[in-house]
């Protein structure tokens, strides 16, 4: 280093009196000064440096000091550090600092300063006192480093932590952290409010202690899977105990916390109480598989069981039997005594049949006065006949009602696996044939299937033949039943209902010809005709200036699964000119036997802009789990639940459960079969949106429906 440079270095550090003596004394001191200059250079480049006298007057500042404070050097020299005071720190803070350095000790701390432009910056500060021989400070050198970015990050983290703390501590969800072994590391206050335990009860305790015994293995496997795989998120359902010995259903999302080594160090659990939802789901599922009046299994549950029993019987070479049972002339009982008496008799009959069969057998109600019995692992037809005689005798015992005794009888048709059929449908069909053979011979009897019963009735043959002609000759017409907004009374749509007026046989009820059309496949051309005519008529009314309305058309199971369904729908809309938004297609729950395929088809229909709905909801097997997976817009509550909603608490509870689930999923709900003001009042109070039924209007012909439209306030 040049001599001049050494001199400059000494000047800069405020020791000019050393210059001559050092240079003249020893060459080794030159080297020391060089090292000192190098240190000074490095310090100036990396840190903010200032030197003050004993009173704090600034004697020296480096370029870094000027840059961050935005003051020029001449503005700083002769001043003290109060020029930079931001007002952030209390006087006691600086009092402590002066006490420390004044006693000859080094002070370290963080200071927020104010720059010339009024902005603030943070510096990590070290102040070193230079002492006289008597140990008194005569100068101070302060070395600072800019930590503004670090402090901002800390503040951001603090705010973020505060926000998440507020969310966690005020959330109704149960938020907790457990270690890899399942011990609690943290629990949110909501654990106390929901479960009743003090937060201290959870400290270092295992999560497993609060989980229902039957669900612990599931939870343990999930935790182990998270530990091994480190999956980003896992959704789990299990039950958890409360202090009051209740069990709550919890939906839990588990997220792993992964340390720098890639190991799962802990797990974050967010648990939501879904007890009410699960209760509604179980209720809907039970309703889906059980008859609402007798609480017996319904057709869906019976068929599921029958398929399983036949599969097992084939493997083990066992015999089983099914028995169709009708109460004789039950319609007369309803007509003479009323539906209340009829319902009581059905309930009593269901109980008596159940008491006559074995524990491994099953009885179901198909509807009306029709029951079906499954007898498993039978040894002979004699055993079957013995059970059937027992049922017959039991049903013949008097039934008391309103102080009177009533006598009923029954007819039974029986088919045995494997002699009468090896498939469920075949057995059902042949047991039904045996039943009608008993009815044809005078009722109140028992009949096993015989091959000569295969011959179909004359009426059946006649209807099938005439149905083919009717489709070709277009003997059908469509009636339209209005749908109304229950809150405003406004017309919002109509349902297309096919009707058959035979030129010779007269009006044939839909429940007579629709099943034949389904079985023979004639439902495909008939359904297409209804869809086309309905769309044409709706478009015609719109073109005439009537209020645009959504037309609902039923799709049968065979229609729904025909390969060219979407092509036909698009073709009909294009040819009729009806916009997709004015069409709604209704399907029954029976289409969901193939859930994934059904969901895909419904989604394609909705992609066309067409609305979708489930007709007769509650009579099939849909559950909350199924419904939330389906791309549907509307649930139509079956009329059987509406009929006595104002009188029957169970029917009312069922409707409320359906409305609750629909509201949760954002689905529209329409009630079918609204016939009186009492039903309407209950539905309106429960929040049902829409309804249709005889209270508002019976199904109307196209001509009469047009008159109905003309009578609306703003019809045209």
From TrEMBL:
Pfam families: EAL, GGDEF, PAS, PAS_9. The keyword Aminoacyl-tRNA synthetase does not apply. Residues 318-451 form the GGDEF domain. It is an enzyme of class 3 (hydrolase). Residues 107-159, 234-286 form the PAC domain. Signal peptide: none annotated. This is Cyclic di-GMP phosphodiesterase Gmr.
